[in-house]
Amino acid sequence: MSTEPQVLLDANGNPIESWGGKFERKFKENPFVPVLAGLTTVSLVIAAAKLRRRDSVSLNHWLRVRVVMQGLTVVAVVGGSWWYGQMKHQKEATASADQERVLERAAFSARLRAAEEADRQEKLETAATTATATEATTPKRTGKSWWWGKGSS
């Protein structure tokens, strides 16, 4: 029996994530959004505590802090989405460029092997042609040499 956990898939074939898994993935993609959302919540809770104590000056201060935190959260969401889109596009471009380089190298290797084989065949043919031409044009010497009267060597 297999001990691997089964992964549940949705209708599109994508794995179904748990709450914790999705939070972790989103936090890695854009860590500013959960931090700023948490700070917004903290400022709202502090403002609610100031409201119960009827401290209007401090309440207004914390409500302004909440508005600033909400604005920063929205900026982080938009900026993070843009950044993530840019990184995704850049990764796709890099992957396609890497794939193209691999294909180019494979084609180059194939052309190089073909050229080396053709060169080897050409050298064999040249050597064979040279050997037969040398045998045909070189006279066989027999008998005495005109130089010292000895046989040719």
UniProtKB/TrEMBL annotation:
Keywords: Membrane, Mitochondrion, Transmembrane, Transmembrane helix
Cellular compartments per GO CC: mitochondrial membrane
The keyword Transmembrane helix is assigned to this record: yes
GO terms, biological process: mitochondrial respirasome assembly
InterPro entries from the UniProt entry: Hypoxia_induced_domain, RCF1
Domain HIG1: from-to ranges: 1-95
Region (Disordered): 117-153
Ranges annotated as biased composition (Low complexity): 126-137
Localisation per UniProt entry: Mitochondrion membrane
Stretches that traverse the bilayer: 32-51, 63-84
UniProt KW Membrane keyword: yes
PROSITE patterns per UniProt: HIG1 (PS51503)
PANTHER family, sorted: HIG1 DOMAIN FAMILY MEMBER 1A, HYPOXIA-INDUCBILE GENE 1 HIG1 -RELATED
Protein name: HIG1 domain-containing protein
